[in-house]
Specification:
- 2 copies of one chain form a homodimer.
- By secondary structure, chain A is mainly alpha-helical.
- Chain A contains 7 helices and 2 strands.
- Chain A has a two-stranded antiparallel sheet.
- The longest helix of chain A is centred in the middle third of the chain and has 23 residues.
- Chain A binds a DNA duplex through helix 3.
DNA sequence: TGCTTGGTGTAGCCATTGCTTTATTTCCCC
DNA sequence: GGGGAAATAAAGCAATGGCTACACCAAGCA
């Protein structure tokens, strides 16, 4: 299984390839705010675990396994952002919270949160009702 | 600020005191599945950070700060368990997931999840509707 | 009283995870 | 072919927390 940091790298790589068609060491490093040498090292680890195929100085390609996992990770991240937004968490807390929890939820939990979001999406008035509850609770203090 | 591990200890200690009136090193160690020496070390750290007052061989007492934080941590844990249960996560995933995310959510997020739970509590039929969404989504596959 | 014993405390060590620094290598393009 | 940007290798460091081994205290019993 992948460590949290491996997931961060894989997520970033998937996104870069998705957006620009390729993922360079320096882009990955910049995105994650680490030094290039850290990226090289992690890429080698990801290669060893068959998430990607890596050729020194030549670049990398995600394997099917890597693509699949990358997509899941990116989707998961997005889902969690949507979830926190939906329930009313402040913008400035969302990124850090997602960053913190995304690596620690089972896919079962992810699926359930997905369902919950769909629940609110289907009937937007439900969010209004949620906000009413919020106002009630705030009034209690 | 407290590290994840410090929070685990504080949570455990608060619970022990709440249930038995005191918290012995060996009980804490057993609860967290670590060796007693690790507990002593952490207790000293918690003392240094004013979460508790510690006297060698004599036991410990939570300070007001420690009590307040301990209660928050225990409540937070419970809240997250309830949340995952409510949205339909399987029993066997809940503990590990909560264990994983509890240290990584802002109090803003916690409050919002609290509101969400209250939303379902007020009108239990909402959970039925949530389960209907779930069935729909499952049928799609 | 004094000894035994179980619970505690101390010190030093180890593992994991990642990151940095520094020095070197490779590629690409002029 | 040479220069510079990018990438890599090697070594080391820092934070976190856990463990082992051994020393120590204190309560209860003989």
């Amino acid at each position: 299984m992948a460590t949290p940091s491996m997931e961060d790298y894989l997520e970033r790589i998937y996104k870069l390839i998705d957006e620009k068609g390729y993922a360079r060491v320096s882009d990955i490093a910049e995105g994650l705010e680490v030094h290039p040498s850290s990226v090289t090292k992690m890429i080698q680890k990801l290669d060893k675990d068959n998430y990607l195929i890596y050729e020194k100085y030549r670049g990398l390609m995600l394997t099917p396994k890597g693509k699949k996992m990358g997509k899941r990770l990116v989707d998961r991240h997005q889902l969690l952002e949507n979830f926190l937004t939906t329930i009313g968490v402040q913008e400035d807390n969302i990124y850090k919270d997602v960053e913190g929890i995304e690596h620690h939820l089972s896919w079962d939990s992810i699926t359930c949160i997905e369902t919950l979001l769909e629940y609110f999406r289907r009937e937007p008035s439900r969010m209004d009702e949620l906000m009413n509850v919020r106002k009630d609770l705030e009034a209690d203090n």
